[in-house]
Amino acid sequence: MPTVNVNRDLLFEKLGQSYSDEEFDELCFQFGIELDDVTTDSNDPKGAVTYKIDIPANRYDLLCLEGLSRALLVFTKKIQAPVYRAVKPGSLIKTVVKASTKNVRPYVVTAVLRDVTLSQSAYDSLIDLQEKLHHNICRKRSLVAIGVHDLDTLSPPFVYSADPPQEINFLPLNQKKSFRGDELMIHYQSDNHIKHYLHLIKDEPLFPVIRDSKGVVLSLPPIINGNHSRVSMGTKNLYFECTATDLTKATIVLDILITMLSEHCNTKFEAELTEVIYEDQDSPCYFPALKYRKEIVKPELVNSVIGINLTPEQMALSLDRMCLKSRVEQSTEASLEVEVPPTRHDVIHAADIIEDVAIAFGYDNIPKTLPATNTIASQVPLNKLTDQLRNSIAQAGFTEALTFSLCSVEDECEKVRHSRDIKEPQLARVANPKTLEFQAARHSLLSGLLKTLQANKKMPLPLKLFEISDVVLLDSSVDTGSRNERRLCAVFYNKSPGFEIIHGLLDRIMLLLEVPCSEAGGYSIRSAEDPTYFEGRCAVVLYNSKVIGRLGVLHPEVLSNFELSMPCSAIEIAIEDFV
Amino acid sequence: RLHGVKFTIRCLVKAEFLRKGLKGITTLSQPTHRMYLTHTDGVSSLQLATELEEDHQKIVGAIKSLQSLGDIVEAEQATSSRWELTAEGSSIVKNGSHEALVFKAVPPGEEGIPQPDLMKATGASGKIGMSKAIQAGWLKVKKEGGVTKLTRTVESIVDTVKKNLEELEKGTSTVEANVINDYKKRKLMQQVTVTSFIVRRGAGFTTTIEKQETELTPELIASGAWKTKKFKPYNFNALGTPLAVGHLHPLLKVRSEFLEIFMEMGFSEMPTNKYIESSFWNFDALFVPQKHPARDDHDTFFLSRPAKTTSVPEDYLERVKKVHSVGDFGSQGYRYEWKREEAEKNVLRTHTTAVSARMLHKLAQEGFKPSKFFSIDKVFRNETLDATHLAEFHQVEGVVCDRNITLGDLLGIIKEFFRRLGIEKVRFKPAYNPYTEPSMEVFAYHPGLKKWVEVGNSGMFRPELLLPMGIPPDVRCHGWGLSLERPTMIRYGIDNIRDLVGPRVDLQMVYNNPLCRLDKH
What we know:
The structure holds 2 protein chains of 2 kinds. In chain A, about 25% of the residues lie in helices and about 30% in strands. By secondary structure, chain A is α+β, with helices and mostly antiparallel strands. In chain A, α1 (about 10-15) crosses α3. The longest helix of chain A has 16 residues, at about 120-135. Chain B has helices at about 1-20, 45-50, 55-65, 85-95, 100-105, 115-120, 125-135, 160-170, 175-185, 220-225, 250-265, 280, 315-325, 340-345, 355-365, 405-420, 465-470, 485-490, 505-510, and strands spanning about 45, 75-85, 115, 140-145, 145-150, 190-200, 270, 275-280, 305, 345-350, 370-380, 390-405, 425-430, 435-445, 450-460, 475-485. Mean pLDDT of chain B is about 85; it is low at about 20-40. The chains are: A alpha+beta, B alpha+beta. Chains A and B meet through α2, α7, α9, α10 and β21 of A and α11, β7, β8, β9 and β11 of B. Chain B: One of its GO terms (cellular component) is cytosol.
């Protein structure tokens, strides 16, 4: 969830009202944003107060002071939602897209804002909003990269092409000397901010680049802008370019930038239409889109989904407060015609409009009812058996452990004396673990219990632990190539191994499961060799002649691997056959 | 009269002593002497040891034993110091002083004995014994043809050192202090501190002590002797014995309570024993776009083995693809290029909602009927770990699916659910979730923290999720979820999740965990 930091006093000035922290918190809560933190700048003599506000991930229109204050003003019915327009000028600013961009970053959308007045806070917003958008919807510039330029320093038309890195040479933003494209990749390796974006184009044969008609480089997207066209507080006319691998996202990003920042134009909320010409396409495209979309919703559906009873007119007023201008269409049956503005790209279905009615109505005001859905409950049989066995084993004096399903490969191999060559290929492996502890899904429960013993050596002996949980086995007959298996594992840790205790636990469990001790049609144990167990002290557990697990005295090396000094016996069996 | 106190107590101690069988005598010797009434002064256990000729520690044991019988005697601790012979001192008592030994080794008469021979004969006592004997005037030195000889100057001697030490050992000594000091310097004696007791009559003093029974026995019951026997009082201030019992894990005890609440409310459990899930069911089926941050490898564990899912219902996959990429069922969709390879990537499920998706799809295939489902099981997140976040945790999820149910029904059922967890005050904040609309975060009032804290998430499943599955259009579906760990940590005041879950938990915490009664805060 993105967080925006806004200066409290500036925000209140825009809202035309002061709030206490509690009042503002309450307003946020109702609107669906969250006042996460209030901080005071200790270095600032005036003690500027900053509000950190959590914004829902799909509300790009709330990521700056302009958008946030505008939405709250509309929500509190102080203003009407503005109308955003893209006006076609006498002469369109054109951007030509070369086919060479196809394989690296094929799209660009552009816009112009005229006669802007950038105050310090407006300038800060311009910078911060780009940053927030880059980080969220732009997916760290992989989908969209934004460049904003001082139009008056440039000579349109612009050309967006992809050129060999050696043929690109310009003075990047805030640098003292010019760099070639390939040199920039090396130069920015040590830049903590920029280095994260280098991988997006570094290995491409051609780098995307935007130039003006005189060959001045505007930017090398998605890495860095040129210094030549940099925006300052004195800038009057702004040229926006968003290069992208995802055209939908680029359109949204541009719409957001324009709807937010056009507030600072002499003619508020008005942008200048621009033309994008793809070399290999016949018809040009025009941006910013600033498209208003109509959605028709049935008031009775809205009422029935929410569980309230508003008139269509009340509903329309509610939606107005959410920046969704609505008109009641009276024909045979009432319907609402809702205009979805270019700020609200999150609205993609009538369901989103219904939600906004509910928010404007107030979630806490909706009558809380119970669904009349009459159903008879049941538990999953495997889980029911698990719970019954857990209770019975605890009654037998064992203490339940709860260990992790993820483990290191070593936990399943060397630590329990299994050969890595044999065991590792049987493990489900995590592709992107951040630490060794999450390399694989566990294949047995034993390591977890031994780790629990290891952490509790100070406790009085004997220690009797158990766990009933799932392990993950590879299984090509399942769609995902794997399945869980429910296992029961118990350990007895004392001065003597207590094999008879663990064996007794097996007998007890089988008694409870009404399984007789018999080789045919019951359970039995048979001597076996297993590297985890001490030689001659291991047996397999057979149920209906099928091996369901093992029990025995653990091998001294296994004990050492878990820093255990006492003998220990253990049992691990699969229980799914007993459901 | 003083003597009286001493006497009766002595008898008692002696009797108790005998009763305990310390001398191998088990019969009780009843003191028959008349009791004296005053008890202003007491008697020292040291004195008793002397009088009864017993080891002091055994006397102390007898006194303690008398005390345990009630308030027959009082005992006040006292410390005193006394002289004790060292090993060397004891050897003198046994064999005589060094000087006496040297004297004995010198033959009577003028002939005497050469010094080297004398030293040889007297060993360790030789050197010091010789100088002391000469000092005492018992022996003299003479030189004869270059040989140093010792001869007696007296016929017989009295070994005063031995005599004094004997007396000192018995404690009947009249030896003067300066002599004692001299013995101390010679390391024949040392001072030791003795802890003793001054014993006095107690309020319930009696000379007829009787063995108190410690416990009721089958024999006492059978013989009826319990009617006349006295029983040793219990110490009710002590704790009972810790029992050797088994325990269930605290978190899973809470899980059982949640399960019971769901069952009471008519929810059926979903089969969640499938940790590895395809991205298709974990994300795409839930209308989570393929470029959503949750699908980033910073958030989700992907699998390198088994890396891919081999089958997905094809017709359903096509509908999902369409609703994502171009929109369908009244939705604009996300308008991007949906990729099958992305959907086939296996992940460790990031939420149990993946299972809910499978259940709803199955429900649609088998013919819709109103349903209520729940699950409580593990989910996995490749997140940054801290005191409250682990890579795996338990998710609690409830789903209601019926015709024409309302958002108000969802609020109501969540309120009821939390009421059963002992949380009376809940409220709802609008929120965003890719697969629900409307979406709400559930906040509960925390009386301890005096503020509203987020406890769960909820919403109505989006039409883009339900309709491609084949769920009828008038059916609405509610879901809500929360973690099992968070309310458990709040309930038991646990700050670090590793103290609750995983192999590093303190078993004592598990042993001491109370019953899970969520309504008792």
